[in-house]
Amino acid sequence: MKNAVVLLSGGLDSATCLAMAREAGYQCHALAFDYGQRHHTELHAAERVASSLGAASYRVIRLDLGTIGGSALTDSSLAVPEEESDGIPITYVPARNTVFLSLALGLAEVLDAGAIYIGINAVDYSGYPDCRPPFIDAFRALAAVATKAGVEGRAPLIETPLLDLSKGEIIRAGTSLGVDYSLTVSCYQADEQGRACGRCDSCRLRRAGFAAASVADPTRYVSGE
């Protein structure tokens, strides 16, 4: 059984991605990041999801992207928007996926992993530049030259199985693979109990996804709805 590194945030998309990697026959090593995010409770969700879906290992790498700032997810002085807006929103975290994938690439080399799975999505997403196909294409090229495995022709595949799926399609796929979405946390400002605000961009996309999939929404909201 070949190894795969799966980036696991504790949210809906990454949980589905882990289930897909497992279904593809990989022994999955879940990798989460404590990067100074305000919604720290997502790490508890990531651990629950890793256990539920039988990950071979679960690691948390700690780094502080809040030192850079520039995002409402790492800077408490910036408000998380609760209305739709044009352009790239303030919830974009500069260089986040670049950093995460780079560290995943290092772990993949240590584990001799054949793939790295990341649950980015270019359909129902918030406009982040590091969730688009050109970013992934560029990182695949980087992976081929940045490591010993890469220059020896063994660079891990960068797998993005959710890239072209709608949120509803993602939920239907995950449900068919046994994902328990009640374990996940997607909200950008979830409280310490993991309850969602129901108003931020991530909550709106998640709620609409369950409706589109005709699947009951198991999300716990602060308002109790």
UniProtKB/TrEMBL annotation:
Signal peptide: none annotated. It is an enzyme of class 6 (ligase). Its cofactor is Zn(2+). Its EC number is 6.3.4.20. It catalyses: 7-carboxy-7-carbaguanine + NH4(+) + 2 ATP = 7-cyano-7-carbaguanine + 2 AMP + 2 diphosphate + 2 H(+). InterPro entries: QueC (IPR018317), Rossmann-like_a/b/a_fold (IPR014729). SUPFAM superfamilies: Adenine nucleotide alpha hydrolases-like. It comes from the Bacteria. ATP binds at residues 8-18. Pfam families: QueC. Pathway: Purine metabolism; 7-cyano-7-deazaguanine biosynthesis. Binds 1 zinc ion per subunit. GO terms for molecular function: ligase activity. Keywords: ATP-binding, Ligase, Metal-binding, Nucleotide-binding, Queuosine biosynthesis, Zinc. NCBIfam families: 7-cyano-7-deazaguanine synthase QueC. Catalyzes the ATP-dependent conversion of 7-carboxy-7-deazaguanine (CDG) to 7-cyano-7-deazaguanine (preQ(0)). This is 7-cyano-7-deazaguanine synthase. The lineage of its organism: Bacteria, Pseudomonadati, Pseudomonadota, Gammaproteobacteria, Oceanospirillales. The gene is queC.
